[in-house]
Amino acid sequence: MEVPGSPVEGPRTEGGVAQPQDGTARTESGLARPQDGRTRTGCEAVGGRGGRARVMSQRPEDRDPGTRHAAPLPRPLPPVAPADRGSEPVLSFAQQRMWFAEHLAPDRPVSNVPVSVRLSGPLDHEALRRALTWVMLRHEVLRTVYPQAGDRPVPRVCALTRADLRLVDLSALPGDAARERALRDLVDTESERVFDLARDMPARWLLVRLGDADHALVATLHHIAVDGWSIGLLLSELAAYYAAPAPALREPPALPLQYADYAAWQHAQWDAGAFGGQLDYWRARLSDLTTLDLPTDRPRGAGGPPRGGRFTTVLDAPLATALRKLAAERDVTLFTVALAAFHLTLGKLAGQDDVVVGTPVAGRSRIELEELVGCFVNTLAIRADLAGDPAFAELLGAVRAEVLGALGHQDVPFERVVEAVAAGRDLTRTPVFQAMFTVQDAPVPTLDLGGLRIAPLATDRGVAPLTDVVCTLTEDGDRLSACFEFDADLFDESTVAGFARCYRRVLEQVAADPLRPLSGIELLDDAERRRVLTEWNDTDRPLPTTGVHEQIAERARRTPALVAVEDGTRRFDYAELDARAEELALRLAAEGVGPESVVALVTEPTAELVVAMLAVLKAGGAFLPLDPGYPPARLRGVLDHARPRLVLADAASARALDGVPAGASLRILGEWPPDRPAPPTDHPAPPADRRTPPPPPRPRPLPAPAAPHSLACVFYTSGSTGTPKGVAVTHGALANYTRAMVERLRLTSDDRFLQLASIGFDVLLEEVFPALAAGATVVMPGRPLLASGADLTQYVESHGITCLELTTAYWHTWVEDLTARRRGLPPCLRLVAMGGERVLADRLAAWRNLGVPLLHVYGLTEVTCTSTVHLVEGRDPGDTEDTDAGPGLPIGTPLDNTRVYLLDRHLRPVPVGVPGELYLGGAGLARGYLRQPARTAARFVPDPFGPAPGARMYRTGDLARHRPDGTLDFLGRVDNQVKLRGFRIELGEVEAALAEHPGVSAAVAVVREDRPGDKRLVGYAARAPHADGDRPAPDALRSFVRDRLPAYMVPSAVVVLDALPLTANGKVDRAALPAPGRDAPASPAQPPRTPMESRLAALCAELLDRDDIAVHDDFFALGGHSLLATQLVTRVRTEFAVDVSLRGFFEAPTVAALAEQILALQAAALDEAELDSLLAELTDD
What we know:
Elements: H1 23-29, H2 93-104, E1 112-120, H3 125-138, E2 144-145, E3 148-149, E4 152-153, E5 156-157, E6 165-169, H4 176-192, E7 203-211, E8 214-222, H5 228-243, H6 259-271, H7 276-285, E9 308-315, H8 317-329, H9 334-350, E10 354-361, E11 378-385, H10 392-407, H11 414-421, E12 435-440, E13 447-449, E14 452-456, E15 469-476, E16 479-487, H12 493-512, H13 526-533, H14 548-558, E17 563-566, E18 571-573, H15 574-590, E19 598-602, H16 607-618, E20 622-626, H17 632-642, E21 646-649, H18 651-654, E22 666-668, E23 681-682, E24 698-699, E25 711-717, E26 725-730, H19 731-744, E27 752-754, H20 763-773, E28 777-779, H21 792-798, E29 803-807, H22 808-821, E30 831-835, H23 841-850, E31 854-858, E32 868-872, E33 890-894, E34 898-903, E35 916-922, E36 928-929, H24 933-939, E37 940-942, E38 952-962, E39 968-973, E40 977-980, E41 983-986, H25 987-995, E42 1000-1011, E43 1014-1023, H26 1034-1042, E44 1053-1057, H27 1091-1104, H28 1122-1136, H29 1142-1147, H30 1151-1164, H31 1168-1175
Parallel strand pairs: 6-7, 12-15, 17-28, 19-20, 19-21, 21-22, 27-28, 27-29, 29-30, 30-31, 43-44
Antiparallel strand pairs: 1-8, 1-14, 2-5, 3-4, 7-8, 9-16, 10-11, 13-14, 15-16, 17-18, 23-24, 25-26, 26-36, 31-32, 32-33, 33-39, 34-35, 35-38, 37-38, 38-39, 40-41, 42-43
Helix pairs in contact: 3-5, 8-9, 8-12, 9-10, 9-12, 14-15, 15-16, 19-20, 22-23, 27-28, 27-30
């Protein structure tokens, strides 16, 4: 066998893409086969982590002339030559990134590259050690350490006489299975051992003896010294040196270049501006990036050692053949087909049009670099625009052009691209892209060295990728396999398995029909589609045959003496309630109230309100409840639009109608005008005996009950245009909803349900009709109880309330009050219903400890109040299990005869776990918006999945996702996701972080543009009523959020209020939130306030080469990058003698935050007297 350096070598690695078939494919794929025709294979197949980056190689001279117009080549760079060894050595840009990553997480093996091979046959230990020694002598980078000189690392090559090869003997273990388990444990342990780059050579070797002719070589390399290509070089050289006779060579053949020469050349080219044009290309291509937000199972930034997972799916031969055929027909490579499909899959999973995927390139575009071990690999960002619904073939062409353009500008180190285009720093995400894609053309072959066989040692252990998801497509004979490596801190394996299924489904569809528009490509197969559309919507049940008022009348006949409603001054049993409603209904009918007639009810929450609601329904009309506390303008606007036949008001509320033109239609409850028509009567026939007095007239029976499709009630909700919308609910929808809620609330005749909502809010339906249909008592407070500031807990106890319902905002406040006062719930209370907004986790945990079940309800007026529910049982004493752990409290499953769809923007169902817009259909669907056909058509749209032609569904504008069991998670509003400075921000996350502060009871976040072009994130915090001391300071709240969220999610201003403004329906009134005052500028330019801050500002100014650094200025926004940050932290450690955290500085990169970190570290090491002296540092000069 020839030794390395001669014309013939053993197999080496490459990876990245399928071998091209012609010049065009070669140019696009980025592969250039070396002139000797050798095949390269990747390190992943031999257990190497570096093989995760399947690399592409492209030398400019290999480009096909016919495609040069697609991506003009930059000016050629000069060849790499040996550097002046008298000059100070430098790290390459890739090495700087590795060195920085090591210092950012010094206890984590984030850059380890484990490589393991099985050695079968008789092994010469000394020959193996000699081969390892020669490999390390030949490649200086394998014995280079990186101690710091001042604030910079300086490479230093160590002398080596004999490679360190440790031996572990497992041969004595009983049985093959035990030895294999022990070997796997050793491999895992070795891969987790960190390197100290200042002292440790970046290569460790371990020989494991399993038997006389069975060994494993376990190597752990550091990415600062190797890449995927290097692994193949190392293995081939190792095999060659092992097989070479000992006397044949006294030392390995010298290389004309070392990696240090390349690093010096790279810096020289950068300093000379040779990469300037290429960098301009990347600035243009990657401007205004959008982060990829794949659906995760856990929040980012949980901390702890990174965990990786791996899931592999096989693409069978017919699919692989179809994909290769598509590539050939479209004159592209398999790599481009698979990459375009990956872009599309990610875009559909994340609901985004703008998707950037990283793909590695070998970084060896010069032939003189092919024999060098080192970290040459570079990363290209391939951006795809999915907007406009093009055909997949069009997307394929666009991705091909992007690949060509990227390859033509591949010399710029990715680190420099990041500095040029990344607007903000987020340690929980990789910059520029959050997913990577590679293609590997063939596995590593087994080598036979005269009886010793060297084969890859496969491992199922996933390593933590440096980004969210990495997909590697591997050719395996006539099949393909897609391996997904993922961050197990973010994703469960089942979730990534779902991603893989979606990817396979996309590949199947584009292979079958590349002209299909992107909107027509679905992520679900038939079984998954049937599950989310049919099985989880299997709620069909015979519809009620009677209306709500008829059900209550039947209850009055069965239990006439039970108390139906009370309000503190009056109490009606069921018989009296029904009689009063019947009498009023007759009067209404005499006034012309009948089907489709609207009767406005303007009353306080009293028993008379319930009478009036039933009376309108009995008369066949529709009631419109209006809170008398509404502003006159609001009342006037609603009455003008609704055009009610009558307006019924109690005497006190009638005064609220002063100035409101109710006209002759106004009637005072209990004071019917004598001049109005009397209820119609029937006169019985006179008796035959004229001496018998005639019987009195009988009230004429009410007209036949209203049809299910007739109007039953109208509720006006706020509209996005500022004009209220009247939601028209039918008798059938109300009856179906009432029956379902009787069951979900578990109501019986023993219950007492407290009515709390504003009567203009649709929750009134939930508080009244299910209770009456069940024979329970409705307790009307007689006045708006919550608005009056009454003690809710005391009221519940004194009135024996068993059930009540609150909006989420009020519920949050109540739970906080109970917790702060250490109060329990009254024993009479058995159930609380709650809904309307996202639930805070700490409030939920506190509630469960109170022991009362919670019914989480979700719905909208347009679908009759409630559509889905989720029951949270109270925690028994000693119960520690939290069955509702996860991203939030679920909103549950649909009610009877209700259909729930989660759809993408093309009305396609989304997979389990993927966010989609929530659409609702079924029997609870309202008719639409009263007298607003255009608005109705916009929101009540055809149901393409409905059971019958003409079915409709309501577009809620809410985001939700299915859990694996079919329950729903509410994620927020579609319009509550904002994009700011290139980052997508879910405002609910910011609100939850603010609300965690002990001095805050509730929080809201909004993006404001009070000055044109000045968009900023603003937080609003309601002061906790029982918080100690004064209201929390805005700066303290910003600092609190900064400790929990990435910097780009920290509000630029926080406004502290005594209470958040609420609408009449108990939801946060965002339109009433005040603008931040002048004392809360978007970018506070505050000068240093202490000697420590002054010194830190001076250090920052020196490194950034600028003056006037303010204490709240973002270091990276001023031009800082990772290496400068490392230098700053190094100088701070030296000057202040504290071990400042580099990660901590990245999370809060300001002078003020750095000073806080230093003071905290100093304080932790001082006694009381020294601490008093240190505190003087906090005072102004």
